[in-house]
Amino acid sequence: MRISTFKLMVLSIFCTFLFYNDGRAYDNTTTHRYINEKAVKGISTIDTVLQSAIGFDKGIYEIINEKRIWEWIREGGYEEDVPEYTRCPKHFHDPLSTNWDIAGLSIPPLGYFPSMIYWAQSSDNDYSWLISRDYYYQALLTGSEEQYAKTFRSIGQVMHLVSDAAVPAHVRNDAHLKKGFYDDSDPYENWVKKESLKIEAMEYDVVTIDRAIGSSQNSGHT
To answer: Are 11 and 19 in contact (CB under 8 A)?
Structure first.
């Protein structure tokens, strides 16, 4: 029994070390920052909303807690992978799973990690959509720059999760590990990282999504 338990512990540590060293989707240093910045500066209407609804005359260029708003959102794209060993395993969701409790990443013998759908709304996640609403509420009540900064950082971290959902390896149980001689990394992610300059030079069209697609009636989930 002792030998069996010891082997299980060693295997658990090995799997944890292997995965946590490179289980990310898009790299957070370049790609996630770029996606968030591009979305905020060039596509979304957040600048107009900040000016008209909240009173930030400079919109996304308003300085809050020593950073511009767009910078907080960009950094959220980076911070969602930090620390890697606790956050990255929660960036998976298999939409074909009929049970969302086991729709996240599974690494034997570590078991299932929470689906990114749950993680994005979890009270255990300090920068989830749920918690960001509390930051925003407190910011409106008090005018606290710290609470506003946490609000915009949270938006950036949730955007990170949305971006990960566009990566094929993150919508199935595929850890796509890479460590030393072992390389099962995702070709798509590798291409995006390699061709970052080419991607940044591309032109993009604005895409609108019918909100009814995400309604509970259509999804079958609440």
So the answer is: no
Location of structure tokens 């300090």: 126
Residue-by-residue DSSP string for 111-172: EEPPPHHHHTT-TTSTTSHHHHHHHHHHHHHH--HHHHHHHHHHHHHHHHHHHHTTSGGGGT
Which DSSP state fits 96? T
Distance (Å, whole) CA 122 – CA 103: 15
Mean pLDDT, the chain, rounded, equals: 81
Please, which pLDDT band fits residue 90 given cuts at 50, 70 and 90?
very high
Distance CA 112, CA 100 (A): 11
Q: Please report the DSSP string for 13-78 in residue order.
A: HHHHHHHHTS--SS-TTTHHHHHHHHIIIII-SHHHHIIIII--TTGGG-EETTEEHHHHHHHHHH
Pairing of strands 63-64, 106-107: unpaired
25, 163 in Cβ contact below 8 A?
Answer: yes
Question: For residue 98, which phi and psi values (nearest 5 degrees)?
Answer: -85, -10
